[in-house]
Amino acid sequence: MSTLPLVSITPWLPTSSGPDNDVRRREISQALHSACVEYGFFYLDISDFVSLEETTELERLARQFFELPQVEKDKISISKQDGARGYQRLNENVTQGKPDSHEGLDFYAPVSDPNPTRPLWGVNQWPSVPGLQHQYEKWIDKMKQLGLILMEAMAAGLGMRAEEWLDLRSQVDDSFWVLRVIGYPRLPDDHDGFSCGAHKDYGCLTFLHADPTPSALQVFRTTPKPDGTRKGEWINADPIPGCIVVNIGEMWEIWSHGLYKSTLHRVIHRGENYRVSIPFFFEPNFDALVKPLPAALRVQEINTRREVSVSAHPHEMGQMKLYTPVTYGEFLLKKVGSNFGTGKGKYD
Ligand SMILES: O=C(O)CCC(=O)C(=O)O
Ligand SMILES: [Fe+2]
Questions:
Q1: Quick one: which atom of ligand 1 is closest to the CA of 237?
Q2: Which protein residue has the closest C-alpha to ligand 1 atom 5?
Q3: What structural domains does the chain harbor?
Q4: What is the pLDDT of residues 33-70, one digit of tens each?
Q5: Do 41 and 165 meet the contact criterion of CB atoms below 8 Å apart?
Q6: Measured in angstroms, how far is the CA atom of residue 123 from the centroid of ligand 1?
Q7: How far is the CA of 347 from the centre of ligand 2 (A)?
Q8: Residues 228-264: tens digit of each pLDDT
Q9: What positions does the domain Fe2OG dioxygenase occupy (predicted)?
Q10: Does the pTM of the predicted model rise above 0.90?
Q11: What crossing angle do the helices spanning 132-157 and 162-169 adopt, rounded to 10°?
């Protein structure tokens, strides 16, 4: 069984220097490029950026919250806000028609004019667990910094010019991020569903810190067959100390004109313990206009004068998918709107 590639962010940290740092940065960017083309998923070694104490503390606080009585947790239910920010009970989220066997706590980027009657536009509901808000706000801050650092490293990997990177940076420098804290009880043997059903993430970059539980998160890896079709298998993405699991969402698929694929993944947790995972979704700015990047078209040797048309759901034309521009916030609202309307999950 193959495993995901592992890349270290260290040379790209602002604190990194030394005569060979530029060479190391180029190697890292190249490795990121390959990982995004081949997997859409990779381990990112961030041990020079975050400490083990920080992530252990996040896990401890999450467990403390999930151990509270149901009525306490329900006090900050998403139904008390904008339908998105807050707590969701076990089985409340649905993916592909089946309830996910997890409970979760969601936080979104704050907005300057909150209005809980507007989808996504309320205020975050912090639990009363002592120290939780402080520790998680520190984590959010770090993940936002990491988002910009990794985006720059990836831009270099895609062969972007300095001014092209600045343009891309201006689409993610006020990220409409999401932080989820997820609690997974053991999936019962007779349960025919999943802890979290197969889905693709829809945004930019997902940074997943999970507790050490093995054989829970699985990634759908496809490889070409001699006859030109592709075969696929589910591979485990078990946690590695000092690393987060990173995957790209549909926005990167559009930017890269399909060169980088947003990859299916799911969670099946049959271990005895209560699993905690903490994905941070580093998303574009709410008003970012996301469209194929010239650098991606250069790599694919696509004639940029040709019309590139669109939708959030790219359609096939011959062998090639065509991607049209989307405004991230509109795309997100449509997604959330249809999910709330139909009782479908955030992941559908
Ligand atoms: O819990 C996990 O390992 C993955 C969760 C996930 O894929 C998501 O929240 O989008
Ligand atoms: Fe996901």
A1: 3
A2: 279
A3: 6-340 (2.60.120.330)
A4: 999 999 999 999 999 999 999 999 999 999 999 999 99
A5: no
A6: 23
A7: 7
A8: 888 999 999 999 999 999 999 999 999 999 999 999 9
A9: 174-284
A10: yes
A11: 150
